[in-house]
Amino acid sequence: MSDYKDIIRKPETLNWFKAAMGMNITRHCLLDIVKQASRELYDTIRKEINRKHGILEHVVCSQCHTPHVLPCDTDNKCCHYKYGSCTFHDIHKSQRCRAYLCNEMCKEIVYHHRFRNRTKPKSFRGPTWDNTDARKWCADPWQIAKCYLSKDGYKDVNKADDTDFNGIVNVLLNCEFFQMYFKDDLTQKENVCTKVLLLQNV
Ligand SMILES: [Zn+2]
Ligand SMILES: [Zn+2]
User: Fold this and answer.
1) Could you tell me if residue 16 is inside a domain?
2) Is residue 64 in some structural domain?
3) Opening angle at CA 43, ends 40 and 48, nearest 5
4) What is the pLDDT of residue 44?
5) Which residue segment(s) compose the domain that 69 sits in?
6) What is the pLDDT, as a whole number, of residue 9?
7) Over the Cα atoms of the chain, what is R_g?
8) Is 64 helix (H, G, I), strand (E, B) or coil?
């Protein structure tokens, strides 16, 4: 037992502990920003859809599943063909939202993704539709923010508060809308977010 006491008293251990505490405090601060910013992103998307298509902001929809509104295209991260049909669109085929809203929201989510460009490797490219539930887009802005998580595995993380540090930083980096909260230029290959992510993976 005394061995453990020695380890705890060591400066290296204390530094490690301080770093972990620091990361936790940073995560809490970032969470507040992401939650507020996600609400602003939703409002911006709705204003844009109103401007382009005249669909008023009070019109909401909770009927469309994500595969309903996402066009089937093997170029996105979730459409995979097995025995001749797409596993993502197996139950819900692409169709038009009755409120003429969700398909447009889907397009706007893509528009705000930093890596929507088709020249990017597929695993980095565009929103991660597997993570989100389009039926909740009008009720819970976090379901929109989830599209900007970098990879699968967050499907059941329904609240921003349950998202890990990596996930929050990825949302901030992958959604161009969040650039306004940074002094650093996130278009640069090396920026404050990529540096943090790199440190996390060491
Ligand atoms: Zn598909
Ligand atoms: Zn809809």
Assistant:
1) no
2) yes
3) 125
4) 98
5) 33-200
6) 80
7) 20
8) coil
8 A C-beta contact, residue 110 and residue 127: yes
The residues that bridge with 82 in the sheet, in sequence order, are 85
Separation CA 36–CA 163 (nearest Å): 15
Q: Which ligand is nearest to the CA of 95?
A: 2
**Residue 134 alpha carbon to ligand 1 centre in Å:** 15
Calculate how far, in angstroms, residue 175's C-alpha sits from the geometric centre of ligand 1. 23
Tokens 């019109």: give the residue.
59
Q: How far is the centre of ligand 2, averaged over its atoms, from the C-alpha of 80 (Å)?
A: 23
Q: What is the pLDDT of residue 156?
A: 79
In-domain check, residue 120: yes
Q: How many CA atoms lie within 13 A of 91 on its CB side?
A: 3
Distance 94 CA to ligand 1 centre (A): 8
Lookup: tokens for 119: 């020249």
How remote is the CA of residue 138 from the centroid of ligand 1, in Å? 23
**Where is pLDDT greater, at 61 or 161?**
61
Distance 156 CA to ligand 2 centre (A): 21
Is residue 5 in some structural domain? no
81-82 and 85-86 as β-strands: parallel, antiparallel, unpaired? antiparallel
| CA of 105 relative to ligand 2 center, distance in Å | 9
From the CA of 59, which ligand is nearest? 2
Domain count, the chain: 1
What's the gap in Å between 181 CA and the centre of ligand 2?
30
